[in-house]
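User: My collaborator sent over this chain with a note saying "see what the structure looks like." That's all I know about it. Can you take a look?
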Amino acid sequence: MADQDVVLEQSIEADVPLAFAWRFRTDIATWNDPPATFELDGPFVEGTSGKTLMPGQEPIVWWIRDVQSGRSFTIEMPLKGATLRFEWHFSAVSERRTTLTQRIILSRGAADVYREQVQTGFAANLATGMAKLAASIVGFSACIFSFAGAALSK
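Assistant: Without extra context I'll predict from the sequence alone. Here is the result:
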C-alpha cells in the first residue's frame, strides 16, 4: 500500500449561479470551519500563501495553486514527505445552479504516515461539510438578493 495516494471526493449542487459560487468560495472571509480560522497573505491568486489557525497549535501554511478563474483552484499543503491537496471544481448545471466538487488528495512518498489521519479526519465529514457549504452559499445569496431587492424598491 506504500506510496499510494489517498483520494476523497464529494460533489454537491447549489441553487446559485456559477459566478456567485466562485466568488463566495474564493473569498476567504466566508470560510467557516470552527475552531479553525484562515488568513490569506495577498489576493486569491496562484502562488499566494495562506494559513490555517487552530487554537493551541502552530499555524498550518498552504498555497493557492492551479487557479482557472471561475472553474477550479487548489489549496496545497506541504507535509513532511507528502503533499495534501484540496482541489475545488465548479461547473454550471444551469444559469442558476452550480455543482461544487471537492477532491482531497494525499500523495507522495510518506503518504502512508498521514493516511489514517486524513481518512478519519476528512472522509467521515466530507459530505456533511459540503452540504453545509452549499447551504451557506445559498443562504448568503438569498440575503444579498433580498437586500438588493429591498434597496431597489426604495
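A starting point for your reply to your collaborator: The radius of gyration is 17 Å.
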